[in-house]
Amino acid sequence: MLIDNYGRPWLKLRIVVNSVCNYRCIFCHFEGQGKFLSRELSAEDIGFVASVAKELGVDDFKITGGEPLLRRDIVKVVDEISKVGPKDLSLTTNGYLLDVYAEELLNHGLRRLNISLHSLDRRKYKFITGVDALDKVLENIDYVSGLGFKQIKLNMVVLRGLNTDEIPMMIRFAAKYGFVLQLIELMPMGDGFPVFARYYDDLSDIINWLNKHGKLLGTRKDLHNRPIYEVDGVKVEIVKNYNNPAFCAGCTTMRLTSDGRLKTCLYKEPVVDLWPYIKARDREGLMKAMMYANSLRKPNFVEGASGDLSRIRIRVRVGSLVY
């Protein structure tokens, strides 16, 4: 296991498998990488990276994008990672194509799903995602709920004045299926930067509501020190990532971009280009490059420093809707 200079182990690898998406979410950070990149790792490349990472103690892999289900070989990607024998293998998706791929992905080793669901209101859903697809996604959620995944989480990015009133409704929806609800703080990254001042919610009122209507179960220590509540039998995980030193102090992950570069933090530029080592199948070179990247890891937010929201004053108009 690798430990960085701040005592944080590297346990997890987020793998961005493509740079395209069929949605246009108003807040998308696109995993901190560019869109429509000119090169892309193959399924075999990704499996090779996973095997080397596992040698270094990484045993938890998250597939993301873009929208990962737009890759026609996504089942092979899952199969290649599964071959290295990870403790956990999960995938984040907008849910639009789950009816096409979910069962086969499960059969090839995918254990958990994170499904983005930012509203249960069709009009709001379309405004947030740019796609009128709520009915289809809800049908797909109902379908995958019975397939036998180890866990399914609903990812909800909290947007002040837009979907904050839906949290009790979302908890009831998660309870219906036995899902976990993950409430995610908006980040000033990518498409989220221009809308940050308008929709940012620091989650304090939501946390007060959770304390009043539920109970704190504890803190998830294996990933970013995330508080976990229980409300009406539903686990609610809080991803409070902006200007939160406690969150950064518990970081155990790095990101592999779809064009083969390694990021130590979502907020930071890639530190190492792994592409040459991956394509040459240079196991020793790749391992050294990963070890070097880990040595550069450091918390983005630290005690005594604060984020400056005053500079974020950009406004945008999205379609004809105004909230």
Report the uncertain regions: 305-323
Oligomer state of the chains in this structure: single chain
CATH superfamily: Aldolase class I
Question: Could you estimate the helical fraction of the residues in percent?
Answer: 25-40%
Number of helices: 11
Q: Give the mean pLDDT.
A: 92
Count of folded domains: 1
The separation of the N and C termini measures 47 Å
CATH topology-level name:
TIM Barrel
Strand order of the largest sheet: 7-8-9-6-5-4-3-2-1-10-11-12
Instruction: List the secondary-structure elements in sequence, H or E.
Output: EHEHEHEHHEHEHHEEEHEEEHH
Describe the sheet with the most strands: 12 strands, mixed
- Radius of gyration over all CA atoms, rounded: 19 Å
At the first level of CATH, what is the class?
A: Alpha Beta
β content, as a range?
15-25%
Number of strands: 12
Shape: globular
CATH architecture: Alpha-Beta Barrel
**Global structural class:** alpha/beta
Structure write-up:
- The structure is a single chain.
- The chain is an alpha/beta fold.
- A twelve-stranded mixed beta sheet has the order 7-8-9-6-5-4-3-2-1-10-11-12.
- The longest helix has 13 residues.
- The C terminus is likely disordered.
- It is an enzyme of class 4 (lyase).
